[in-house]
Amino acid sequence: MIKIFDFLWLPQLSIQSFLFASFLGLITITLYRNFIVPYRKLSKLGINVSPPMPLLGNMLDYGSTNRHIAQVKRQELYGNVCGTLFFHIPNLWVGDPEMLKIITVKEFSNFANRFSLTKPRPPFDKTVVQLKDQDWKRVRTILIPTFSTSKLKGIMPLITDAGDNLIKTMSKAEEEGRAIDMWRTCGVYTMKVILATVFGIDFESKEQEKKLTESAARLFRNTNGVIQFFSIFLTPLFRMVEPLLGGNLVKSTIYLAKTAENVLRERRRNLKNGIPCRRDILQQMIEAGDGDKLTDEEIIAQAFIFLIAGYDTTANTLGFASYSLATNPDVQKKLRDEIDSLCPDANSIDYDTLFSLPYLDMVISETLRMYPPAYFVNREAKEDITINGLLVPKDIMVSFPIYGIHHNPELWPKPNEFIPERFSPEEKAKQIPCSYLPFGGGPRNCVGMRLALLEAKLALVKIIQNFELKTVAETEIPLKLRSGTTLSPFNGAYVGLTRRY
Ligand code: HEM
């Protein structure tokens, strides 16, 4: 009897023990490889490391929508250079302007690429954001002339149309006496600009306009950065599962890509037959490059990345600027005086005038300092390199805490006050290089910066020509922020309007 009992239970016990020991072993190995090793890698550098959680790292520091606050707090606690874990990936945060200058400019060849978390799928693997080294250089070189002053002047009529539409929407809100969310309203404007200029879409009807605008908006409506990330890069599993779960992201992406493909095909046909084409960014991409041209696949990839990189960032900037003007009436008056004297009506808005309004430029610069939509960027270290005595190891993710840098009181006294005068020519001359990075830095900076500034300036001039912005009950003061894929207003940017004429 005892023998039988032994026979039945001992092996069972030993299997249980074996499974338990294996489970413990697996956990220990996983923790060791994905927590202890990367943590040690950072600690060995002699920098302060923010205490991470096993496996999650510092992902939840200060909450998932307060990553901009985490940058400021880390700066206060650990200094301008410190370490965190992005899940298990060691992340070196560099908020020191001197080091940033070396990373972005002097040692550019060692930090030319962004850190890749996943391998993107076609066509997103062909975007200028994702490409590396020579492949990146080739596409970026072809793209640069697309955003030149003369090319941007050519698309002014398309941006002006979208701007007129923005004023119509605002007029309706003013007539109805209701507050308006300038963040969402300006989102419609920046979406129209990208669809018209980059996707080459000439809306044939209101219905088509609505369908296309809604499809593009769907790529952004979900503020969950992770879902957006998967939808953007369309990992195979996501591509299969999302439509089955009733989602529209994959469908919208395919619809937009198909529309752009059709426009491209028609443009190529027209070009062959000598039929003049609309002068937009899509056309510039088709014609750009001498011997070496972008393929259709590459053009569509860039169109998508321009939509992703350009829609939200510029809309957020306009939302933040409208809020800042409403809450700072003195600044708004100064801007209004400048616009009234140098650009008094719709007919006087042209490219050169927009770029010669000094106070407008100062207001936008201060908006981007206080509320940088791209609140962090990163680079990958190609080789081990020592910068100002700090060893930056090969393959490490190097991040720039843009929000933290812009709110560092040593660089920007009274960082939480909206003071456009910080960007007067005299003050600008005193600025420490790399202490202001709303568009990133060095040769890998934002390729769409001029388009973004043109869009923002044109919209703000039109807004100020037509309305006075004021705070109302719906205006949230101070404005609550959300750090997701970009830094945006958490609950919108509501202001009241009074028509000026
Ligand atoms: C206010 C609006 C915008 C802001 C604040 C902004 C900011 C940035 C930042 C910080 C970067 C990373 C730079 C770096 O790594 O050093 C970037 C890259 C980029 N941006 Fe923008 N951006 C804006 C608008 C636009 C627009 C309108 C477009 C295109 C239509 C655009 C296209 C891109 C592209 C393609 C890159 C990647 C460049 C490369 O890797 O070579 N951005 N942007």
Short key terms for the protein model shown above:
alpha+beta; binds protoporphyrin IX containing FE; 55% helix; oxidoreductase; Cytochrome p450; 3-stranded antiparallel sheet; monooxygenase; Cyt_P450_E_grp-I; 5-stranded mixed sheet; 501 residues; 9% strand; monooxygenase activity; globular; heme binding
Mean pLDDT: 90
CATH superfamily membership, which one? Answer: Cytochrome P450
User: Treating each run of at least 4 consecutive H or I residues as one helix, how many helices?
Assistant: 19
Strand order of the largest sheet: 1-2-3-8-5
Can you tell me the number of structural domains?
1
What gross morphology would you assign?
A: globular
CATH topology descriptor = Cytochrome p450
Tally the beta strands.
Answer: 12
The ligands bound in this entry are: protoporphyrin IX containing FE
Supply the CATH class.
Mainly Alpha
- N-to-C span: 102 Å
Examine the secondary-structure arrangement and name the CATH architecture. Orthogonal Bundle
Subcellular location: Endoplasmic reticulum membrane; Microsome membrane
Family: Belongs to the cytochrome P450 family.
Cofactor: heme
Protein name: Cytochrome P450
